[in-house]
Queue: 3 jobs
Job 1
Amino acid sequence: MDQQAISSAAIALLAGLAGLAAPAGCTAETAPGESPEVRGAREPVGALDPYEHSVSRFGVVPLHAGFSPDPRVVGGTALGEVSAGSIHRKCKGWISETPDYLLDADTAFLRLHVLARSRSDVLLVVRKPGGAVLCNDNRSGTKDPMIRSDFPIGSTQVWIGVREAGATADYRLGFSEVKWNSSSIPLPDLD
């Protein structure tokens, strides 16, 4: 074996050993500018992602910087089919197997507000294109979950969940670039 082949074999062996020594599991990470009420994490590198090619239950919300009307509001019914922990271990509650909506951003957002409103206590789970997962079940002082974060170009998966397995809840989901109150979004039965 020549010197170059020996060096290549040694590098491959060391890389394999380093992979064995790396800790397994998710690591919690909060994206810059996120409020403390938002929990985020990245999935471990190389982990299988059962939601990677999921279609959405209610459609795609296309957004670009400066979109109008603001807030953009859509609606649906949350389903408690699978544990929200299947997206990330820190997410609590139950969500549908398929994302409720796909946020399709053709420009990056430095700060975008995502808020859900319902007569029921619902939770919000988003998974950004790079794999970061953000969960929120209550915005301070309300039962309306909200996530404020940067969002890159690409498709972000959005789930609205419920507290109990098998439960359902009608909701409205809003996206905004400006600071706004939950009262800016009508409750589902007041349209």
Job 2
Amino acid sequence: MVALIIIVVLVLWICVSCIKIVPQAQAYVIERLGAYQSTWNVGFNLKIPFIDKVARKVNLKEQVADFPPQPVITKDNVTMRIDTVVFYQITDPKLFTYGVENPMMAIENLTATTLRNIIGDLELDQTRAALDIATDPWGIKVNRVELKNIIPPAEIQNAMEKQMKAERERREAVTRAEGEKKAKILEAEGAKESAILRAEADKQAAILRAEAEKEKMIREAEGEAEAILKVQQANADGIKMLKEAGADAAVLKLKSLEAFEKVADGQATTILLPAELQGIASVAETFKAAAGKKAE
């Protein structure tokens, strides 16, 4: 009874082991009695027990191979170390399984030799194309090759560092000169603006002084004119008052007497009298003649 149970369990285990479910993005390479039989893709599959076996499980996703830096010689005979990253994808599981013994080592060596041969003549895209063609028989497609790092020799690194230092110093000197130039320009512009403002201030001050002087002269002239008008008005008012008081005749007599005195003293020879005194002109002439005879 125990033996029967063991046999049943063994048969069930064998049947279950013959059921294979291939997951997404994978493929199984099946061999029958040591020879390639088929390639199982995604889904449910059955194999014959003890006859069929899964020779290899292949990952169909795009993969990345990061290889150590490889020494290469450039076109100008400089040895450099190139650190590359290869992005590849398995397109044929059968060729990947039976095409080469160690695919990853083969890709690494192929990448190194290809870079050594064409690093000075071809671009990186052409390198990728050359690797893609070379790996086709292995069922591998090289999608792209990226340069992660380029390591030059120590002497070239020193020369590059010196060159970079000189370039930085040159840029620093240029920047400093540009700063000094801008500072001088700003200083000159400030002095110019200051001179213009001072000139404008002096101009405004002169204009204000001239206007003040003009206003002063106008005020003084207006004051003098007003004073003259007031004096004239006062004289006119006085004359008017004398006329109203009957002083015109007395004034005329006084002026006539003064004229006569001047003629008598010899200070005047002609008497200009107002119209009111024209009647006594002959008296003045007679007085003048008398004065002349007295002098003789």
Job 3
Amino acid sequence: MHAAVIWFLIGFILFLLEFVLPGLILFFFAVGAWLVAILLLFIDFSINFQLIIFVISSILTIFLLRDWVKRMLYGKPTSKELLEDEFLGKIARAETAIIPGENGKVYFKGTTWQAASQDFIAAGENVTIIGNDSILLIVKSTKNV
């Protein structure tokens, strides 16, 4: 069997393993193997040189292209998704009283945020973050959750 075919098969196996062990690393080793296979179609060189090309091209593609490919495949998280992960359902503490129709302040993650609520919330009371309007947090008393 020709060395180019062997490298192609190694790349194909690594590509398939990416689906079993996701992390977007094995894909770039597959690219490295395919690059060696393509080069072997035109130039015949030793196994040592093949391995060097494989390792260097795989590592270079990981460092240069992994973040870009990740963004292309998975997209960037939207601000709404970030809000859901970091804020929604979390507990904060009311720094000031929050009266329905008027904003108050809550302490969350080491800083003070503007907050609004449909409930009357006393200063010092724990609240649950249920939404946002730009940088204004919408909260609800933990007594009513």
